[in-house]
Design brief:
The protein has 2 domains: about 100 residues, Arc Repressor Mutant, subunit A (Orthogonal Bundle); about 70 residues. The chain is rod-shaped, with a radius of gyration of 38 Å. It contains 6 helices and 7 strands, in the order ααββααββαβββα. β5 and β6 form a beta hairpin. The relative contact order is 0.09. By secondary structure, it is an alpha+beta fold. The chain has a 3-stranded antiparallel beta sheet, with no helix packed on it. A two-stranded antiparallel sheet has the order 1-2.
Length: about 180
């Protein structure tokens, strides 16, 4: 993976924003080091049980071992909302970056697939909504058509009317003449 996520609000206003500059840089570089490892499991090790040495980490971060150790102490004291520190240090010295999965970028193919699935769901919902509206409109039109055909049942011709359902001419009665 060529890149990893860093949260702008966390960097600009998060718990480390007031830390020493070297502590902030060490955090970003430790994320980069872990991102570059083959295992990418949150542990700063070459292999399980084979941790990266403090000397190596200080060299890659371009800081002294004392600056690295001070930053690690800061990370241990930087508690999240649940009261857990930013890192854990195993008895063998291996460093674990808590919530490592938060910093993982999704591969472009996975992002494209998620976007396509989301768009397909939106299109399906939009089509369903359109279809539902069309069904309602057709039903309403059918109701109106039924009402109109009922009213047009008779066609007036002089004093006679044509019953359009039976096709028979019917003579109007006097009281019906006033109604029609």
């Amino acid at each position: 993976m060529d890149w990893y996520k860093a949260f702008q609000d966390g960097i600009l206003r998060g718990s480390l924003s007031e830390a020493k500059y070297s502590t902030q840089i060490i955090w970003i570089k430790l994320l980069g080091i872990e991102n570059e490892t083959r295992l990418r499991d949150g542990w700063l090790h070459y292999a399980p049980g084979k941790p990266m040495t403090r000397e190596y980490l200080a060299m890659v971060c371009h800081v002294t071992i004392d600056e690295l150790n001070d930053a690690l102490k800061d990370f241990l004291g930087d508690l999240d909302r649940q009261g857990f520190p930013r890192i854990e240090i195993a008895p063998d010295g291996d460093i674990f970056i808590k919530n490592w999965e938060k910093y993982q970028a999704k591969p472009d193919k996975l992002i494209a697939k998620e976007v396509a699935v989301g768009r397909a769901k939106e299109t399906k919902q939009r089509n369903k909504t359109t279809l539902d509206a069309l069904v309602v409109a057709v039903n309403e039109l059918n109701k109106r058509e039924a009402q109109i055909s009922e009213k047009l049942r008779f066609v007036i011709k002089d004093d006679e009317i044509l019953d359009t359902k039976t096709g028979q001419l019917v003579e109007l009665k006097n009281k019906e003449k006033g109604v029609i």
